[in-house]
Design a protein that fits this description.
Layout (H helix, E strand, L loop, with lengths): L14 E3 L14 H14 L7 E5 L6 E3 L7 H4 L5 E2 L2 E4 L5 E4 L5 E7 L4 E7 L1 H5 L2 H13 L6 E3 L5 E2 L5 E2 L7 E3 L1
Parallel strand pairs: 2-4, 2-6, 3-5
Antiparallel strand pairs: 1-12, 5-8, 6-12, 7-8, 7-9, 10-11
Length: 177
């Protein structure tokens, strides 16, 4: 498990990235039942259950959905019932957003004032369709606090005109609250 030191400064924001030691969580190279077991083991290390999470099935577009209780748990066990989007946002406690990535960027948005979070899959198609801008708009429309929104992406930290921090991460699995 890996955590970004910059994100640990926010005690209300929970995040974790799987590592090679956690095994393949994608089900691309193994039986679904074994993948579900590995996902459960990874989440267990975080004191979470499969039913706490909403897994997004990447659609390679710019659709962003508000995560809610009805979506929890289903897609970590049954791939056919996955949420087919490239972004999830929520301001509800106890909903963990889960994304599997390979060569695209996971983008974490966090509004510490309203405790709103977003998780975006930024592939080239989504980036071309301005998924990041749309996610910021969707999150700030809901909370009305653009100036407090932080967005995190690893290694390169950029400053935008609205004082939003950006930090880039790649090739890891993410669960966020």
């Amino acid at each position: 498990m890996y955590q970004i030191p910059e994100l640990l400064k926010f005690p209300k924001l929970f995040h974790a990235f799987s590592t090679k030691d956690d095994g393949d969580l994608s089900a691309n190279f193994d039986l679904e039942s074994k993948t579900v077991q590995r996902r459960g083991k990874f989440l267990g290390k975080l004191k979470l259950k499969l039913d706490d999470c909403i897994k997004m099935q990447v659609a390679h577009d710019d659709e962003i959905v508000e995560a809610n209780e009805e979506l929890k748990g289903i897609s970590l066990r049954d791939w056919k019932k996955s949420v087919n989007v490239d972004g999830l946002v929520t301001n509800r406690n106890g909903i963990f957003l889960f994304l599997l990535i390979a060569d695209c960027l996971p983008i974490i948005f966090y509004d510490p004032l309203n405790k709103a979070v977003g998780l975006i899959h930024a592939g080239w198609k989504g980036a071309d369709l301005n998924i990041v801008g749309k996610a910021i708009k969707k999150t700030t429309d809901k909370t009305n606090t653009a100036k407090y929104l932080c967005k995190f992406l690893t290694k390169n930290i950029l400053s935008t005109p609205t004082n939003i921090t950006v930090l880039f991460v790649s090739e890891i699995t993410l669960a966020i609250r």
